[in-house]
Amino acid sequence: MSRLIAVDWGSSSFRAYLVESTGKLLDTIKSDQGIFNLTRDDIETCFKSQCASWLDKFPQAGVLMSGMVGSRNGLKETQYLPTPCSAKTISLALESVELFDRSVKIVPGLCFIEDEKTSDVMRGEEVQILGAVNKLSNDCELICLPGTHSKWAVVEDGKIRRFSTFASGEMYSTLLSLDLFKGIIFSKSFDKESFQKGLDASFQTAGFLNSIFSGRVKLLSGELDDIHLSSYLSGVIIGYEILSATKIYSSNSKVVIVGSHYLQELYTLAFSHFNIESFCLEPDTTYVSGIYSLAKQNNYF
């Protein structure tokens, strides 16, 4: 197979990548047609319409998918592989499904179980983590993947050892809809000073819920403008995520950030605020690097 069609299909987004046998990214397709917005039949139709030109031009191209497409709401519910897990282990567990007379393989998710009190799961992020591993030189890395459900993962000896999830993005969206802030016109523009005030508020000993309410207090006192509330709340949430994650994971190396460019900017600013070194990896090429390594291990090329 001279081409690979790789699909990162999440709950709220669709991303497809046309990859050459050398691993070079040739083309990209993106839309907001996530799995949670589609029925089983819609999934097939969506894939075919989104990637029609590629499918017509490269009829022999292999198709490899990851993310929520492997959930119970997707094409097929795949298993969760226990950590520690390497690219080879994951590649041996790819699961097949027929899609309009074409065999498609889906990447399984991962699960981390330490004891009865500590467990976690992921679908899709494991591919980006593997891609980050390919790009990094250190033996032990702490990787942060910000998003709706932010993931923090520890990688050692090329294996994903453990990880934790923080529902930061989802919490942010929820807070903006609360009666607590009803009637406030939220601005889509970012305000650095308000964001940093939110980061400082995450240090409060009274806890997360008190820090959230402090946003309303600052509005009433005039310390915070209505249009800057969203930046403040973002700072509170990201601050708590970082402080919680760094309590779980201790690392002498820089934190590696893999996410959208906007989130990379926010998290870089937050890490700097807390005197934590970090650097970013471009998300699309990192994903392609990870999915390409799985494809090669599975003899796609």
TrEMBL record:
<dbReference type="InterPro" id="IPR042258">
    <property type="entry name" value="DGOK_N"/>
</dbReference>
<dbReference type="InterPro" id="IPR007729">
    <property type="entry name" value="DGOK"/>
</dbReference>
<protein>
    <submittedName>
        <fullName>2-dehydro-3-deoxygalactonokinase</fullName>
    </submittedName>
</protein>
<dbReference type="InterPro" id="IPR042257">
    <property type="entry name" value="DGOK_C"/>
</dbReference>
<dbReference type="InterPro" id="IPR043129">
    <property type="entry name" value="ATPase_NBD"/>
</dbReference>
<dbReference type="GO" id="GO:0034194">
    <property type="term" value="P:D-galactonate catabolic process"/>
</dbReference>
<dbReference type="GO" id="GO:0008671">
    <property type="term" value="F:2-dehydro-3-deoxygalactonokinase activity"/>
</dbReference>
<dbReference type="Pfam" id="PF05035">
    <property type="entry name" value="DGOK"/>
</dbReference>
<keyword id="KW-0808">Transferase</keyword>
<keyword id="KW-0418">Kinase</keyword>
